[in-house]
Amino acid sequence: MAYQCPRCGQNVSRASSTQAALAGGLVGSLLYGAFGSFECRQCGSISEEEFPPEVRRKMMFGSIGMMAVAVTLLAIVVVVLIALNSTP
Ligand SMILES: [Zn+2]
Prior knowledge:
Blueprint: E1 3-4, E2 11-14, H1 18-35, E3 38-40, E4 44-46, H2 53-86
Antiparallel strand pairs: 1-2, 2-3, 3-4
The structure holds zinc ion (ZN).
Zinc ion binds near residues 40, 42 and 43.
């Protein structure tokens, strides 16, 4: 999912964090991505308020989607752990 920088018009990407990825694995990096800021290669980090309203609405749905994926992954991990623990 690519968004345009409100300052220079280039594509921005969600800021990623290696620390969050290490701490929480895939789920951690997904959650970080869902709430993290955006980064433009030219202008640095861009706050959500700088984007036009329709773009922000799309971002919100994108964040909800990422949250849903993270929660689903967590649920799968929990189910697998329970299944592993219950085997004799
Ligand atoms: Zn920019």
